[in-house]
Input
Amino acid sequence: MNPFDAWEKQQRKKADLKYGSKNKKQQSDDYQYVFEIEDKIVDFFRESVFDGDNFDEFDSELPDKSAELLQAVSEYPVLGTVGETGSGKTIQIPQYLYEAGYTKQGKTGCTQPRRVAAMSVAARVSQEMGVKLGHEVGYSFRFEDCTSDKTVLKYMTDGMLLREIVIEPSLESYSVLIVDEAHERTLSTDILFGLLKDLINYRSYLKLLISSATLDAEKFSDYFGSAPIFKIPGRRYPVELFYAKAPEADYIEAAIVTVLKIHVNEPIGDILVFLTGQDEIETAKEILKQRTRGLGTKIAELIICPIYGNLPTELQAKIFEPTPEGARKVVLVTNIAETSLTIDGIKYVIDPGFAKVKSYNPKTGIESLLVNPISKASANQRTARSGRTGPGKCFRLYTLHNYHKGMDDNTVPEIQRTNLANIVLILKCLGIDDLVNFGLIDLPPEEALLKALELLYALGALNKAVGRQMAEFPIDPMLSKTIVASDKYKCSYEIITIASVGNSILYRPKDKQIHADNARLNFHLGDVKDHIALLRWCRENYIQIRSMKRARDIRDQLEGLLARVEIEITSNLNDLDAIKKAIASGFFPHSAKLQKNGSYWTVKHPQRAHIHPSSGLGQVLPRWVIYHELVLTTKEYMRQVTDLKPKWLVEIAPHYYQLKDVEEPASKKMPRAAGRAKE
Output
């Protein structure tokens, strides 16, 4: 028995013992009363059936096609591949390239839009090849590198490959590059297309595969000069599609009711529920726990498995564990499971039809992460998740009319709705100055480009020496400028500590909010400035939790990058003004002053703003602050706030501020809470 089989057997045994649901059968006729106690019942009607493919198993078919695939790869420099999510293209194709000898000429790199996907796929491939993860097969993304000199199959985020191009523009160490999940149209993927299109002409022996789960591959084919498209056979089974008869006002409640209805009335099979984020997932999890607990042993075991970015890795792994016999698993996920994650055993999908979409308004400088309707393409991706291992059912919590009339065909590409400052900096460092004629698949808004150039000019990043230093750090340009400026103020040690921690260590679980809030108060005790509080907390608390380990790893890498850009490690903890000046050197465009009503008004590009409730400055209200970002949720909130003296703005950025920008009438009355005003 190999180690993986032994591990799997042990995991099954643990699951059986833990849940105690073996031999328990569902008897739906006896449990119809469950829904009589609910306030509502979700009515569906069966609209259609998604036809399946004529293939029983992918692995039995693709080897017959692998020879054709490898022949196409050898003949064409660029090849588009189209295959359903779960068809095995991400896992199998790199292995076929490995077996065909392509890795003898250089590494095979495969990009993923998300970190979780890069990790999970690399782990699966290393297991199938019988090698240790990090040796022949590895993964890499920002601030985490699980590769070695032996690595020949490398899975990474698309942003990571973009960083590698900055260091090695010709990518000589690669023989094949696979841009996977290209249909997601992330910002990094679109920029990679522009760079790789030129690189293919320069390196004739480099092979490029564009992999997509949708027919958008035709658009990519046209972009790369009518590159051929290879259709990968799938193994999708028929899926019955149900729509809500009427719009659902509370889609979380509707999803919970539908989960319970499926659990009681439908044959065995796991459930996948799409929600918009951590808060919704935790809410649904608690309600499901409460309602199933009340029914006790009257129904079969329902195992609730959430997955989101901040969830500890060991809990994320639970979604991949086999479901014990007689039990049912319900997986609560965000849109990451549309394409990037494949979970075996899913027979039922519940789709409320919403997702959180990040958008950037260049006029106001506000980033918003708001719940929006998904596109038809996303809806169809979600539906297909239920037909991988057998016939399935998809319950859409929206009407057929809403699907046809209220949803766009495709999601708006990220390049058309995001802050472009970091990408423009990278392209400038690669010598690409004509951004408009760079040759992107879809052009970004002109206003967003101008805003990015304006910010980079203000930060001094268009100076080649400074810009090159900033581009070495895989972080936001304003934060990278803060690190570069720390050399002047002799506080690089403190600044990279602040940069590595960010706001990630502060966790507020839904069932322990009071304790978390009390801990947050203690966190700010003694010095309520967010950045300084982070610094002192890190120095005085040695807590070995996942986020702190990650922060430590990030800090180590930032320290290594300081050496690359020839910045000495210096400490100046006793001079807090110097630390705040370094921060202001990067974030001076994000300054705001207090108004009489207790809100703030940004100095440049005037916009009303408020200190986020999680900030230690929320009750103090300094007269002048700088902030990391302005985010629109229920209000326009400033995140990561520090007070400063207004004269510093003129001192640090005389090209950006004049004295009249920071002068105030002496008689101006401020709110009573403004007890820490700086002059």
Residues 58-231 form a domain with the Rossmann fold fold (CATH 3.40.50.300).
